[in-house]
Task: structure prediction
Amino acid sequence: FPLTQGLKMITPHLKKTSPLREEACKAAVTIGEKIVGTDPKSVAAAVARVVTVTKNSETASRAKVLIARSK
Result:
């Protein structure tokens, strides 16, 4: 669900060792795109982790755009 609580629920899976890493990265970016206007600080923190752990270049690119939008 596109709320800050949704980001908090998936943040523990934004680790290189998590088997759900890529799914969590995609979810974080999708949620972040919907709430960046209302909670840019939480979005920036979550998607910064996405950039470091995802192997998907499209997900990383979307995360970088969100980091820029959250400033």
Summary: The mean pLDDT is 95. DSSP finds four helices and no strands in the chain. The CA atoms of residues 51 and 57 lie 9 Å apart.
